[in-house]
Specification:
Radius of gyration: 23 Å
Distance between the termini: 48 Å
CATH superfamily of the largest domain: P-loop containing nucleotide triphosphate hydrolases
Largest sheet: 8 strands, mixed
Helix content: 40-55%
Bound molecules: adenosine-5'-diphosphate, magnesium ion
Oligomer: single chain
Strand order of the largest sheet: 3-4-2-5-1-6-7-8
Shape: globular
CATH topology of the largest domain: Rossmann fold
Strand content: 15-25%
CATH architecture of the largest domain: 3-Layer(aba) Sandwich
CATH class of the largest domain: Alpha Beta
Number of strands: 15
């Protein structure tokens, strides 16, 4: 199954572009599903019909569903959530508040990714298009996979054992329940799923992220940061979609806008380098309904296959070379000053433009040290040599 995720700042056209991509794939005969993970669901408005957490057919080969966080929580995370609620209640929070608080921000994304994994395993679709929440939340979630990995590798077993030992006494002292073994079990299960999702989404042959943006200063700035961050975490970006371009005939009253957009477009070309750029005009009306969505798709994919991998940047690789190991990370949009590398036992901590990633070094690098690191254009290289001490 081919997976395409769309993200970008609020209101740039993610939902419209996601639906247009999905419909374009469906019209080419691919069994397609579009999932919305944005809490502010709008696929229902777009397709003019109610859409729920179970897939419904909106056109030939095209299913749609909107992830509903409470529904998925009950399904996937019942035990952990019951614990969080129980814990909050013991701290004096009322039932309703505890219920709301047990939904953490970014969970829609998490659950739609879990759902994505189920879809992948079911084999029922050729293409899945994900209409993600605005940039920040998506990035947080993708970064969360790493933090989760880090935590699970370091503390999980220790904590689980510790809780078993201290429970009888600790619960009396802190007057709150500690998580039981079934909670740890569910965390472990969730962790396994999360890692499977990560493997899926970091595989450039199966998954791509596309950034939707508008030719406006703030939007471009946010998209650039997102691009850097996605690369840092190893998620393959295969295109940008520049939406709401003013056509030349919009001149006259909108002359200044046209001029500004032209400058922004020049900048976008530089900022996103070799990434393919898909474009869509600003239509003279809201793009609602199947016919409008089809029109948007025709415009965006005039020269590209909607479901294809449009660029095959490998964000990350690690290769042996004459007794050394060379690691390469695609890291666009940062200057030397903004990159920092720290090595700590078996992990590499890379900070770039304010984002930080902990990379657990693979086994084969045990006993190796970082000999050199340099940023060459938009590629960050790290050379490992055998520790001779
Ligand atoms: N190229 C376009 N031309 C005209 N209207 C558009 C275009 N792209 C998006 N829109 C409209 O802009 C609004 C916001 O788009 P939407 O896809 O919901 O953005 P997002 O999902 O990023 O918040 C919708 O009303 C949509 O119909
Ligand atoms: Mg939307």
């Amino acid at each position: 199954m081919r997976i395409i995720l769309y993200t970008g700042k609020g209101g740039v056209g993610k939902t419209t572009v996601s639906a247009a991509t999905a419909l374009a794939c469906a019209r080419r005969g691919q069994r397609t599903i579009v999932l919305s993970t944005d809490a502010a669901h709008s696929l229902a408005d777009l397709f003019n019909r109610p859409i729920g957490p179970e897939p419904i057919r909106v056109a030939k080969n095209l299913d749609v569903c909107e992830i509903e966080v409470h529904h998925e929580l009950a399904k996937n995370w019942g035990t952990i959530r019951a614990y969080i609620k129980h814990f909050l209640a013991s701290r004096g929070y009322g039932e309703v508040i505890a219920d709301e608080l047990s939904v953490l921000p970014g969970m829609e994304d998490l659950f739609s990714l879990l759902r994505l994994l189920e879809l992948e395993e079911s084999g029922g679709y050729d293409v899945a298009v994900i209409d993600c929440a605005p940039t920040g939340a998506t990035l947080q979630l993708l970064g969360f996979a790493d933090v989760f990995d880090w935590y699970m590798n370091r503390f999980f077993d220790i904590e689980r054992k510790l809780v078993r030992v201290i429970r009888p006494m600790a619960e009396r002292v802190i007057k709150a329940p500690l998580p039981g073994d079934e909670v740890f079990g569910q965390i472990e299960q969730l962790y396994q799923r999360m890692m499977a999702i990560k493997n899926l989404l970091t595989d450039p042959e199966r998954a791509s992220v596309r950034l939707v943006l508008n030719p406006e200063k703030m939007v471009i700035a946010e998209s650039r940061r997102a691009f850097t961050c996605l690369c840092l975490y190893g998620y393959p970006v295969d295109a940008i979609v520049v939406n709401r371009l003013l056509p030349p005939e919009a001149g006259g009253y909108l002359d200044d806008w046209l001029k500004a957009q032209k400058e922004h477009l020049d900048f976008i070309r530089v900022a996103f380098g070799s990434l393919p750029q898909l474009q869509c005009r600003l239509f003279p009306r809201e793009m609602v309904g199947l016919e409008a969505v089809k029109q948007v798709g025709a415009e965006i994919f005039a020269a590209h296959e909607p479901g294809a991998v449009l660029a095959n940047h490998r964000p990350f690789d690690l290769e042996p070379e004459n007794g050394f190991y060379k690691m390469r990370l695609h890291l666009p949009g940062v200057s030397k000053k903004e990159v920092e590398l720290l090595v700590k036992e078996n992990e590499l901590i890379i900070t770039a433009a304010g984002y930080r990633r902990h990379i657990l070094l693979p086994r084969q690098l045990e006993g190796y040290l970082v000999a050199k690191a340099r940023l060459d254009g938009d590629q960050f290289h790290v050379l490992f040599t055998k520790d001779s001490a």
